């Protein structure tokens, strides 16, 4: 069992990581919250069908009462109306301030449940049980909650830290292959920005990772959580350091937006974004060709990525008009050596274009194109 402390000014909790942990969830929640509670479990039908019984048994064995708060699957249901419906359900069921909201699913369930927990009666305890790679290594750590507006993603949200994060890599065995891989890129990102050992581990074992070997998943997830925990502990509200987590995300977000969030999974767009940022770092002389090759190679080793079929010029335009961009200066998180990055605001447009052309060419080479039909 790995237990990773997450220490923030107003909150301190642990992430627990072990294959099979789900069957101990009830007991751990009992211990962390000092006794049995009424648990309101936010989830989607697919996760409830696959893993709900195990969670329910574990909670009742530890004398917790539980109620499902089911939401429809998918990013488009990450809306305030979903939170409202669930809150009404909680009132009906007489949930009080001692009740616990549990997020049981991917990042969507986590963001919705976190927001619900932070506003229901001005805040109730919250526990994360993430079930996708992306949620286990990224979304469940750091306390950001949120829902989407028509005008953009995550525009409504709060910070609400969980009391515990329970990570069972064993539940990943039912995750569709494409979702599984997409989450791995966020771990690879953690390696590049802050842990060369994690990078090497992933670089050396792509086949075992894709086979979801549990010893390896535990180590990779553990190292990713540790890295994210360290970053958010130093910068809970995203002033400076937390920006390094955006490695690959500058171009990644632009690719997602330019394709209306339909062509790439988030992690896939980030994978292309990491390759682009690596290219920029190499052409500006910040990163050695050797390290650049390693990053590119390791990223592509997890299999084919959906094709980049958008015009480099359109991506550049999008980058320059991004709300976060000041005076047309785009901020890039650039690797300088494996395990270390810096933020740079003075990359020439031509250098960015060259990197965008590079990923476009790579994507033509590595696949026939079109949307990758993952399992
Ligand atoms: N709060 C944060 O800090 C943070 C960070 C990163 C991402 N996010 C958010 O996370 C969301 C994306 O999360 P996601 O990629 O996990 O998407 P998701 O929650 O939609 O899950 C992806 C799919 O996997 C299925 N699934 C989940 N667990 C499964 C399992 N064990 N077996 C089989 N199927 C399973 C779900 O039903 C869903 O269809 C986005 O909304 C993003 O904004 C939040
Ligand atoms: Zn991301």
Index terms:
375 residues; 7-stranded mixed beta sheet; two-stranded antiparallel sheet; 11 strands; 14 helices; 48% helix; binds zinc ion; 16% strand; binds nicotinamide-adenine-dinucleotide; single chain; alpha/beta; disordered C terminus
Percentage of helical residues?
A: 40-55%
Please write the string of helix (H) and strand (E) elements. EEHEHEHEHEHEEEHHHHHHHHEEH
- Summed up, the helix count is 14
What is the distance, rounded to the nearest whole angstrom, between the alpha carbons of the first and last residues? 30 Å
Unique ligands: nicotinamide-adenine-dinucleotide, zinc ion
Structural class: alpha/beta
Strand sequence of the main sheet, in spatial order?
1-2-9-6-5-3-4
Radius of gyration: 20 Å
Strand content: 15-25%
Main sheet?
Answer: 7 strands, mixed
* Poorly predicted runs: 367-375
Global shape:
globular
Q: Average pLDDT, to the nearest integer?
A: 94
Number of E-type strands: 11
Helices and strands, with pairings:
Blueprint: E1 2-8, E2 11-17, H1 25-32, E3 38-43, H2 45-61, E4 65-70, H3 80-92, E5 100-105, H4 107-119, E6 126-130, H5 133-139, E7 147-149, E8 152-156, E9 164-167, H6 177-194, H7 196-204, H8 206-210, H9 214-234, H10 249-258, H11 266-283, H12 289-300, H13 312-321, E10 332-337, E11 340-344, H14 349-366
Residues 44, 46-47, 50, 73, 75, 78, 105-109, 111, 131-132, 134-135, 138-139, 142, 144, 154, 171-172, 174-175, 179 line the site of nicotinamide-adenine-dinucleotide.
